[in-house]
């Protein structure tokens, strides 16, 4: 029996909302102003994801944090041909993964009319470095992108109607970033007491979720799903009125190693192909 997918509780025409779907064609709806994110649940996952997951979780497949900042589809493909290690997974699994990632670039090209991409990829266990946040794009670039987490814990997010004021969220972000800097400084200086105090403050800040109207209400985009979501233009990151609301989300803080891929474009936006 197919697992039911959630229905956005905030759905009402004209308001920002999150669309859950099983139909990959719906990912294109991210171009709509009132669609903040499209979460496409892929179930069952294709067979090649099983050996991929085993290779990532065991550490056999290891990809350091990498950003391809401004690459065409062909250049992305060439990068994988050169740098995706040969051996940790069977050639057919490797090919399926590369095809799948190139499909993410194709989806962005189709929705935004771009031909250059910023691709971020890594295999890593979750950390506590980053709380709820929004992702940014270069000035003038299409304010959306795609995320696929292939295994492990999914991505937490909140519904747009759960957010308080932009000011509350910016205050949380600002404090979280300052505390994270303090934690790093304490770690580098081996000041254990300071490190533990700051870590406690971060945990309390994250638990309180003071920027939410309903702090307990957090959803999760499961691993394997493809998520198209609104980003914020860097120029407007800290302004109160930045156009369509970006997706407020948080990576998991615990769990095993995951393979994560993000695609946006650095290219100025042309009119979307609707
Ligand atoms: Fe993010």
The CATH topology of the largest domain comes to: Jelly Rolls
Most strands sheet = 7 strands, mixed
Q: How many helices does DSSP assign?
A: 5
Mean pLDDT: 90
Shape: globular
Helix/strand order: EEHEHHEEEEHHEEEEE
Structural category is alpha+beta
Strand content: 15-25%
CATH class of the largest domain: Mainly Beta
Characterize the structure shown.
- The chain is of the alpha+beta class.
- It has 2 domains: 17-163 and 215-264, Jelly Rolls (Sandwich); 164-211.
- Helices cover 30% and strands 20% of the residues.
- The chain has 5 helices and 12 strands.
- It has helices at 49-58, 73-83, 91-112, 166-188, 192-208; strands at 17-21, 35-40, 66-71, 117-124, 136-137, 144-149, 155-157, 219-221, 226-230, 232-233, 249-250, 258-264.
- A 7-stranded mixed β-sheet has the order 1-2-9-6-12-4-3. Strands 8-7-11 form a 3-stranded antiparallel β-sheet, with no helix packed on it.
- α2 packs antiparallel against α3 and α4 runs antiparallel to α5.
- The longest helix is centred in the middle third of the chain and has 23 residues, at 166-188.
- The radius of gyration is 19 Å and the shape is globular.
- The relative contact order is 0.23.
- The structure holds fe (ii) ion (FE2).
- Fe (ii) ion (FE2) binds next to loops.
